[in-house]
Amino acid sequence: MLDPAGPAAESILTLMAMLLGLSILSFVVIFGLFLLAWRRRRGREPSLRLFLVGGGLVFPLILLSVATVYAVVLGERITGAREVPALSVEAQARQWRWEFTRQGAGGSVTRPDVLDIPAGLSVEVFVTSADVIHSFWVPRLGGKIDAIPGSRNRILLRADAPGRYGGVCAEFCGTGHTQMGFTVVAHDSAAWAQIEQGGTP
Ligand SMILES: [Cu+2]
Q1: Residue 179, exposed/middle/buried by CB under 10 A (0-12, 13-18, 19+)?
Q2: Which residue in 46, 138, 55, 122 sits closest to 89, CA to CA?
Q3: Alpha-carbon distance 124 to 153, whole Å?
Q4: What is the fold of 87-196?
Q5: What does the pLDDT look like over 33-61, one tens digit per residue?
Q6: Hey, which of 11, 31, 97, 171 would disulfide with 74, CB 3.0 to 4.6 Å?
Q7: How far is it, in rounded angstroms, from Cα 172 to Cα 176?
Q8: Which of 124, 123, 164 is nearest to 5 (CA)?
């Protein structure tokens, strides 16, 4: 996730860096005030009003407003709610593997533990589970989404460049949890055209 390869993962990293920055800023300000109070304990009394209104209301209000607006704007990018995807894929989790199904030229195509996508295009993945709760996560491409029995959760992924991206189950789901990895293979346009014609990836 520290080496994002698509817009959703990039937004998540930006959001994390921004929240970390605000936390450090707030820590420095509060610790600075503490040091000031400690050094001046025998001096004149600081204004109680400034402390309560400034430190208790204005300062956190500014920090939280910035964080909220930023998170909402980035959240739109992460969920891709308004984007029209180029491809829809069904992902079904079960103890302890993944099955990815898409509609191809000759009917539905299912591959275990490998998700083929076109590079550079948005793909929506509908995630569900056949048994317990799992979680779908491709750290370099986007955030996590839970795989819940009886529910169909959507996540939007885009890989900017062709390549292989590792995915994991991010919710402890039993003794085989650590082996429940999968691979997202992003194909270039020529290879993807072949796959759409029914060729093997
Ligand atoms: Cu799992």
Answers
A1: exposed
A2: 122
A3: 10
A4: Immunoglobulin-like (2.60.40)
A5: 888 878 776 666 667 787 788 878 998 89
A6: 11
A7: 9
A8: 164
* CA-based R_g, the chain, Å: 23
Q: Are 182 and 108 in contact (CB under 8 A)?
A: no
Residue numbers in the chain where pLDDT is lower than 50:
none
| Ligand 1 center to 109 CA (angstroms) | 22
Report how far ligand 1's centroid is from the alpha carbon of 147 (Å): 8
**Cα end-to-end distance, the chain, whole Å:** 26
**pTM for the whole structure:** 0.85
User: Is the preceding peptide bond at 96 cis, omega within 30 degrees of 0?
Assistant: yes
Query: Taking the domains of the chain in order of start, what are their residue ranges?
Result: 7-79, 87-196
CA of 146 to the centre of ligand 1 (A): 10
Residue type, 102: R
Ligand 1 geometric centre to CA of 69 (Å):
34
Q: What is the pLDDT of residue 30?
A: 86
- Residues bordering ligand 1, an ion, CB closer than 5 Å: 134, 169, 173, 180
Tokens of 130: 């056949």
Q: Is 159:144 a contact under the CB 8 Å cutoff?
A: no
Q: Residue type for 166, please?
A: G
- 59 sits in which H/E element: helix 59-79
Q: How far is the CA of 189 from the centre of ligand 1 (A)?
A: 31
